[in-house]
Specification:
Length: about 325
């Protein structure tokens, strides 16, 4: 068995040496001394950090002529693999590139190549968890509430990103207006040395604990809301419909539009101002034009809240006019 291993090892060494000698014989019509020779040696594997593969990145080039060494080192072997990936290149491909770039290799060059070269690309991987963390930090820095009352309930990045090595920075953007109480979608653009390379998408939801106004007990339709009828409790705003109230003063003096149960969160669609005037009420009609002010008695033909326009009949002329409700006893005709 040992003799077989030794035989295989000797065979591999012999093949490599044979390739080296054959290249020398084919490309060099005359022998040169080792001292005068430029030698290009390539190991079976190399790791790079660029978009193109240069000979200097995968080979050791030694010789007496610095200009020739630089010229050989700048030979472009081909496209580099993607960051974190590998590419296998045949030795004949490298020789073809060298011949094409130099117009035929000089006589005093020695070549020591493997049959195949495996090139890998350096990379930096940003995990999905880190991308999600970046997005969450960006959102929390912009919420309109105290951060102690806000937490990220759910966050998910769609993918990890693999980047070439370099100075990594990122930019977080929202494709639209931020709505903190609904699902937030963000893009995270990664840059390497100032150049945009990869983009990931993140979705997240917040939990926002804040005070909201609720009724203490059941209330009937059109029942006026008084201070003892409401209180403030802490709720997750993200789970509430829009239009909630945070200050009891916003609802006191209004009435509920329909029957509500105890602990119901009051919203704009559940409350309204009670009408100041009702059909049949007698009010004072005011009409003003510059310094001229005219008043008359009128009969209300439809209920109305403060600021609303209603129909009123002038009791003197019997004409119907449109007037704005000022209070429970006064309406105003506007020209």
């Amino acid at each position: 068995m040992d003799s077989i291993r030794n035989y295989n090892r000797q065979g591999m060494i012999g093949s490599r040496l044979c390739l080296f000698v054959m290249v020398l014989l084919l490309l060099q019509p005359a022998l040169v001394t080792a001292q005068d020779q430029t030698v290009v040696r390539i190991a079976p594997a190399a790791e790079i950090n660029s978009d193109r593969i240069l000979l200097s990145q995968v080979a050791r080039i030694a010789g007496p002529d610095p200009l020739l060494i630089a010229r050989l080192g700048n030979i472009d072997i081909g496209r580099a693999p993607l960051p974190g990936r590998k590419r296998v290149i045949e030795s004949r491909h490298i020789l073809a590139r060298m011949n094409k770039s130099t117009g035929g290799l000089p006589r005093d060059i020695g070549l020591d190549f493997p049959q195949r070269l495996e090139v890998s690309r350096k990379a930096v991987t940003i995990a999905k968890e880190r991308i999600a963390e970046i997005a969450a930090e960006w959102v929390l820095a912009r919420v309109p509430w105290d951060q102690e009352n806000v937490r990220v309930a759910k966050v998910q990045a769609n993918t990890a990103v693999v980047l070439p090595q370099g100075r990594v920075t990122y930019q977080v953007k929202s494709p639209g207006k931020l709505d903190f109480l609904n699902t937030i979608a963000l893009s995270v653009q990664f840059l390497v040395d100032g150049q945009a390379v990869k983009r990931a998408w993140v979705t997240l939801n917040l939990e926002v604990i804040a005070p909201v106004v609720v009724v203490r007990k059941p209330m009937g339709r059109y029942q006026p809301i008084e201070s003892q009828d409401v209180t403030v409790v802490l709720k997750d705003l993200a789970k509430l419909p829009s239009g909630y109230f945070t200050d009891p003063a916003e609802v006191i003096g209004k009435r509920v539009k329909r029957t509500v149960y105890g602990n119901t969160v009051l919203r704009e669609d559940l409350v309204e101002l009670p009408p100041l005037v009702n059909r049949g009420d007698v009010v004072t009609i005011i009409a003003e034009a510059g310094a001229l002010r005219i008043t008359a008695r009128g009969e209300v033909k439809a209920k109305g809240r403060k600021g609303e326009r209603i129909s009123v009949v002038n009791l003197d002329s019997r004409k119907r006019v449109s007037a704005r409700v000022l209070d429970a006893r006064t309406v105003k005709v506007e020209f």
